[in-house]
């Protein structure tokens, strides 16, 4: 195995070991004592159940990630990448079509192999803890829609990327970056009205106290709210959530029906004030810009490793190609992406604190955000005492206990 192969193997196993250590530390950090701030919302039985849920999810994650790593290594060392490449080349298509078929076949194979894990997680683990609302019919429909969308949207985008790198010369990476960026912006614009309704129903929030309170607050902070929708989250899970999606005239806020069911009007407005805070503080724009810049760096570096014989030798490939270059480079880039993800998580946690503070300082009942977070934690059986290393590695949101303490402190001033 050459140097590239050694680097990829070392980082694959290394990142798996780091995540394993984080999971084990997280389990050890699970405190049997309910934090004082949650004693008005949790009872001891529910708290014990949240820790059982943590252990069950950690065990599932460990098994599935170990299986994924083992599958990749077996396929690699058995010569699977070259075998599939020769099989597809024998069909006689041009390189772009070969690339779509090659990467599509690998993704399909991975999806089929991982399907039992997805079924078990949904219908056994989530069912055991009372979260699953998904029927086999809905599960199958979601799967079919996802595959079709991947074929209708993903395949042409992949083909365009391969064509640019294949045909546009030294600046192919720049054309690919520009094309994918433009398409991503278009997709975010149309997704709320064209794609998301394929999976869930979005009904306008009916007139009443909640809608009036939300619209009054939005007017106070001069937020151009064009749509408030209720999403049938209960179709799949008993967990609650809210999110902001789209941009321009297609901005909309979606509330899970499970969230509305379990929270007061003041708590719901406080949650939406947090979401509006992300928009006002330009967190969404910042995230989009950073993602685009990262994609540009990835495409540029990919152009430097295009058809690198040493990289192909690491996977025992007989012939070089643009599509396999893309795949193998992403494996080589994995440690850099791992570090970038940690930095993005750190930024995300900072943004969550800022959005919390925005809600507290702009909404007269902003302190109710703490009550909403407590209820959400109980409803979702959240881990209240995660280990700091696990937070550092995996959390896009700060631990809920830290958020509650900061919100309550800000509300007192």
Automatic annotation (TrEMBL):
Which Gene Ontology molecular function entries are recorded, alphabetically? metal ion binding; metalloendopeptidase activity
Q: Which domain of life is it from?
A: Bacteria
Q: What class of enzyme is it?
A: hydrolase
Record carries keyword Transmembrane: yes
Q: Name one GO biological process term.
A: CAAX-box protein processing
Identify the residues that the record assigns to the CAAX prenyl protease 1 N-terminal domain, covering every copy.
26-201
The residues annotated as the active site are 275, 356 (proton donor)
Q: Membrane spanning segments where?
A: 6-25, 60-79, 99-125, 146-165, 171-191, 284-302, 322-343
Q: Where does Zn(2+) bind?
A: 274, 278, 352
A Pfam family found in this protein is Peptidase_M48_N
Q: Is Transcription regulation there in the keyword field?
A: no
Q: What is its EC number?
A: 3.4.24.84
Per UniProt, subcellular location reads as: Endoplasmic reticulum membrane
Q: What is this protein called?
A: Ste24 endopeptidase
Q: Which organism is it from?
A: Chlorobaculum parvum (strain DSM 263 / NCIMB 8327)
